Amino acid sequence: MTMSKNTRNRFWFPFILSVILSSGVYIGYNISKNKVQKIHFNIPDNSTNPIIETLTLINTYYVENPGLEEHYDEVVEKLISELDPHSYLITAKELKAINDEMMGSYEGIGIEFFALNDTIQVITPIPGGPSEQLGILTGDKIIHVNDSIVAGVNISNEDVIKKLKGPKGTKVKVSIARNGYDKLIDFQIKRDKIPLYSVDAGFKIDENTGYIKIGRFSGQTYNEFNNKLKSLKRQQIDQLIIDLRQNPGGYLEEAVKIISELLGNKEEIVYIEGRAVEKQSYHAEKYGNFLNGKIAILIDEGSASASEILAGAIQDWDRGVIIGRRSFGKGLVQQQYQLSNGSAIRLTIAKYYTPSGRSIQRPYKKGNGDEYNNDFVQRFDDGELFNADDSLTLAKQDTTHHYYTKILNRPVYGGGGIVPDYHISIDTSYLNSFSLQVISSGWIQEFIYDYFNKHSNQFQKYASIEEFSNKYNISDNTYQSFIRFCKVNKKSNYTHLDNQHVKKEIQYRMKATLARQIFNNDGFLYITAQRDPAVLKAIEVFNMTDYPFE
């Protein structure tokens, strides 16, 4: 029986949704940390606010200690939930981790790890961190932390983090099991400030083209981006792909600095305005380092906030081509306010507008965050994710208001995210029940991690990512070893394990995962870029004889 296209798409929907959600659209706030102010629950004598009056009465006259402090977060969260989908409460417990991420650092020993067979495995020591400096290696297994055993005791990732993180200058003892050594190796690690990188990778794809992927906009994003850009310019690139897919946003100022490297001096990038916020424009701050080269911006339904500001400015100034799928549609600006109980509020205070004057915030109903957050489901049902039909995306835009780009006078629309100049559909052609299970479960990562540890010597001959990409492929024997791993270790009993289309896809993902073990994120993204439809479309557009964005 032949399934209709819509039926097939619905079959893959749970997998696609899990991939999108796993990346997480946590939507960073857009006002600098320097502008944060503190709010206390002051109760004035002349208050006419029934909420404040009720709190005052209960705290003053109730027969027993009411213990309302335990419920303040619940009350505040309920109030905020009746506003817009992007105003929300951050509890005191959550605040430290979020601030670490936005500031671009935390304090600890500096490793990436995961639990495999109930053992903490070191994926990679973070470059420049204390673990790398002491000689901890990829593939090491952490058996003890201080005097506590952490192997074979079903310890959670959260508990591991609690044991390894700590204030700068404090020490922690770890005992490591390493392949080739009969005894455990002890390390006394002095914790330090560990960078959390927001620019995931930067490298040359071909002779003329550079690629930079930005994962989020934190306090160090501009510096990280600028270092990558300078390195690529020294390699004589004149074409640049900036990948913002699944980038949920963050600090507005960091995006403005990056756009300043791509636009001329003093050109408007974005402006914000709200009921209590006067119009404030942001302009390119200087003559940038990449004013004349060709630019492509990659976006998708997970690109939000500061990502949309960057894409919108490039599109409105006709500075480059936008490729991918319609962006998230977040045009609301949040500012963070500290509360007296240690929690914080991120409150929407304004809307932002692209240089053409359009707001890209998609519609929402106050107090109905579920419908708003399920927009991806609607895009799926409408077929927008799988079809490049312009009418599907224009239907989500406010076409009653017309806006035009600054140089080429092209029509653009607001009210529903940034619509790319070239649409790239989600590819589901390689998916079946086996590949869905393999890709979503992390089996490839488990297999490759163990495979690399056992065969690491054979990869030392590859001096560069390019050499590895050109000369190494996953052999049929290695693929069959992976199939046996799935059957024996994961009890996989699928009957179509040798489907050639699926096999090719899994081999490609295995190679990319192996490249990450050897060359970190640059290796993984370099391999995936070689057959990424959006990247390939960007290079195709760059090579057009009538490329319109010179």
For this structure, the CATH topology of the largest domain is: 2-enoyl-CoA Hydratase, Chain A, domain 1
For CATH, the homologous superfamily of the largest domain is named as 2-enoyl-CoA Hydratase, Chain A, domain 1
Tell me the overall shape: globular
Measured between the Cα atoms of the first and last residue, the distance is 51 Å
Biggest sheet record: 6 strands, mixed
* Tally of individual domains: 3
Overall pLDDT metric: 85
Number of H- or I-type helical stretches: 18
Unreliable spans: 16-28, 33-43
**Strand count:** 22
| Percent of residues in beta strands | 15-25%
Indicate the radius of gyration in whole angstroms: 25 Å
CATH class call of the largest domain: Alpha Beta
Q: Helix content range of the residues, please? A: 25-40%
CATH architecture of the largest domain: Alpha-Beta Complex
Provide structural commentary.
- This protein is α+β, with helices and mostly antiparallel strands.
- The protein has three domains: 1-103 and 197-424, 2-enoyl-CoA Hydratase, Chain A, domain 1; 105-195, PDZ domain (Pdz3 Domain, Roll), CATH 2.30.42; 429-535, no CATH class.
- It contains 18 helices and 22 strands.
- The protein has helices spanning 5-23, 50-61, 72-81, 92-103, 130-134, 157-164, 221-234, 252-260, 306-316, 369-373, 375-382, 390-394, 433-441, 443-455, 465-471, 476-488, 500-529, 533-542, and strands at 37-39, 88-90, 105-108, 111-116, 119-125, 141-145, 148-149, 171-177, 185-190, 192-195, 199-204, 209-214, 239-243, 268-273, 280-283, 294-299, 321-324, 332-339, 344-353, 398-404, 411-414, 422-423.
- Strands 1, 2, 14, 15, 18 and 19 form a six-stranded mixed β-sheet that branches. Strands 4, 5, 6, 7, 8 and 9 form a six-stranded antiparallel β-sheet that branches.
- Strand 8 and strand 9 (185-190) form a beta hairpin.
- Helix 7 (221-234) packs parallel to helix 8, helix 8 runs parallel beside helix 9 (306-316) and helix 15 (465-471) runs antiparallel to helix 17.
- It is globular.
- The model is unreliable at 16-28 and 33-43 (pLDDT under 50).
